[in-house]
Predict the 3D structure of the following.
Amino acid sequence: MKKIAIFASGSGSNFKTIFAKIFSGDIPAKICLIVSNNPNCGAAKFASEKGIKILVLNKIRFPNSIVREKTLLSALINKKTDLICLAGYMKLLPKRVVEKYKGRILNIHPALLPQFGGKGFYGMKVHEAVIAAGVKESGVTIHLVDEEYDHGKIIVQKKVKVRPGETVKSLAERVLKIEHDLYPRVIQAFCRNNGIWENNHPIIEVNIEN
Ligand code: GRF
C-alpha cells in the first residue's frame, strides 16, 4: 500500500476526488499527510473532517525557512511517504524535498505546458491567459516536479478544444472535470506499477475532448 502526501492550498477538489478513489479501493494507497500553507482552505477543512493529519506550513507558523524545510522533510519521512501529489499547492517545494523525492512528486496544471505555465500562472489566471491568447486548445498536464514552477518532465497531457464563445469560467469548469478524471488515474498507475516513471515515462496520452 503506497503512502501519498497531498499538498493543497485551494478548494481541494482534486484532493477530494483522489480521496474518493482511495476510499472506493480504486487506488491502492493511503493518504498519509496533507500539507497546506493555508489552514482555512477547502482542502485543509476536508482533511480535518476526514481525520487526516494536516501540516500547516507557512511563515506565520515557521518564520525560519530552515526550520520550515526541516519540519516538512521530517513529516514526510516519518509518514513513510512514497508519493507527493501537488493539487493546487501555491508554494515552491524546498530543494531538499525535491531532491529526496525525485521522480516521486507530481503536479497537475490546468493548461498544456510548457505554454501558460510558470510563476504567475495559477488558478483563473491560466484560463484568462488561454482565452486572451485566442488559442484553439487547452487542457491538463500532469508532470514530475523539479525546482521550477510547472517545469518537470511531462507524464500525461489531455487536450480540450477551446470552443467559440468559450468564457474563462466555462473553460475552467471543463478543464477541472478532466483533472478529476486524469489525476486519480495517473496516481493509480504509480501505485499499481510501483513508481514506473522513475525509470521511463510511458504514460503519454494525448486526447482531444470536445
Ligand atoms: C487545479 O486547477 C490544478 O490544476 C491547479 O490548481 C487547481 C486546484 O484546484 N494546480 P482544486 O483546489 O483541486 O479544486
Summary: The two ends are 36 Å apart (CA to CA).
